Amino acid sequence: MKHFFTVLVCMALTAMSAHAELWLEENFNYPDGNLEQADNSQLVLHQWMQSLKQEDANGTSPQVANHNLTYPGYISSGKGKVAVLDAAVGDDKSTQRISVYYLDTIGKRDTISMYAAFLFKPLSAKNTSGRDFAIWEGSVGSSMCRGRIFLAKNGDAVKIGVSKNSSTINAWSGDIAIGSTNLIVMKYEVIEGASNDVVKVFVNPGLKTKEDENTPLVTTDNATDMLVKGFGLRQRGNGAEIGGLRIGTTWEDVVKTDGSDIPDKPETDPDIYAVEDFDYEAESAIEGQGGWVVSTATNDQGGQSPLVGATSLTYEGYGAGDKGGALVLDSVSQQITADLKRNTVMPFAAGKLAEGDVVYTALMVNMAQMGGTSGKELITYLKQGASDGANTTMRGRVTVKIEEGQKSFGIKKNSQTIENWSAATPKEETALLVIKYINNSSSSANAADEFYLFVNPDPSKTEDENAAVMLEAVGNDADGGADLRYLCFRQMKVNATIDGIRVAKTWAKALNYTKPDDNPEEGLQDILSELPTASKVLMDGTLYIIRDGQIYTINGVKVQ
Description:
This protein has helices at residues 2-19, 251-254, 507-511, 520-530; strands at residues 22-26, 33-34, 48-50, 63-65, 82-85, 97-102, 114-125, 131-137, 145-154, 157-163, 171-172, 182-189, 198-203, 217-218, 230-235, 238-248, 272-276, 293-294, 307-309, 326-330, 342-347, 358-366, 373-383, 393-403, 406-412, 425-426, 431-438, 450-455, 470-472, 486-491, 495-504, 535-539, 542-547, 550-553. By secondary structure, the protein is mostly beta strands. The protein has 3 domains: 2-254, Jelly Rolls (Sandwich); 272-510, Exo-inulinase, domain 1 (Jelly Rolls); 520-553, no CATH class. A hairpin with a 2-residue loop joins strand 32 and strand 33 (542-547). The longest helix is centred in the first third of the chain and has 18 residues, at 2-19.
């Protein structure tokens, strides 16, 4: 045994030297099948093994699957494979199992906090009170959990909670969409004294922010402290995929970016539900990125995921144009037929909307590649089912019609027939659509919700000033409320490019009007050619300096 520990010391020191504060980068690059490898009968550094506590060593090993998870900007995004937790394992105590990656069996680190960052894709949760799926391990001879992340079913979504040791969850996150990929950071924070260490969990923190700029879920139970010796994945009736695991002793080492151009934090304006510019890798599947998933209804899961296009759309004055990529619906390449349709959805609200809430969804659409049709459904609001095979509720269904190379749009509440269509425009021209949803209900049995569609509104004008291009949904006087929380794009023999989605509480925030001449460079180009040397120019109340063919503001910040 002494010889075994000596080998571990050498290996641990080598690992620490190679990774500095980063103790582990685990991308699950193992053969498909059991995560617990055959040679884990002995404690070997950098490998997974079943818990040494008998009651947590039942069931079967988590499985390694040959695909990865992606999360924009995260340094371990899109690498290796995933570990899959099976909801059928651990559904009762006789089959629950903990698989542990032991970091160090002998080092006494009672002054060092530990961090674990990983990608987490929830697939299912059966228990509404929560069951743990990720733990900090404090023993190599039995099982000593201090820091437990729980997953709980919450209506159509899930939520995660944290405790130090007990099954009483001290804090819960907001709703997380089934099938969405999230970044989770779990911290074991060492505090001087006894039984006072704290466990914190951060859900989707800003990748370019410091730790104290993010709000964690925090434990409050007074369990005894421990020395972190490993990280464990627990199969206890939850379905999930785990990828891109990074364990270290500093926030900066585990929460790292891949160098891509990402915002410091997502947009947090309380009047904005969602902004989607499709800034993902071209030709990648949209499902699994940015919260996009396939519908939970099995009859709407045919074909393949829509793809990300490299070319973005523009519409004069609309404040979401010419950014990122686009969403491509292609019924041919994505194998969509009448009997093999697919609904791809994105949540815009974490919980039930309040009665009287108004939602505006603005987006650009181009139908240049689509042939003639008397009407195909393009987008709708949707209430997702809670699990595979569950039904879905759709309301506010936008349909496109193409005749003789001209496109027009219509809207209906549910299954009615559309008779009034928007003015026809060439199908090659990008259209701007704004869908207005008024939630008049507190339940599906209450007053009817309302839907309206604006086709090619002027972003510089108010909603009232765009009344001439507004269509009222057929059926607004029927089909009660629906508790709608998702946007749904319908692949039913549709060929379209979608871009620049903004979901907001107000017309102004959805349209985000941008003056076409807001860029001072355009107005200064003629002056620039005439004044190539150092000069001062006053334009629209702003003083610019032109020097050596470049444009600067008066405070020296470069404009061009």
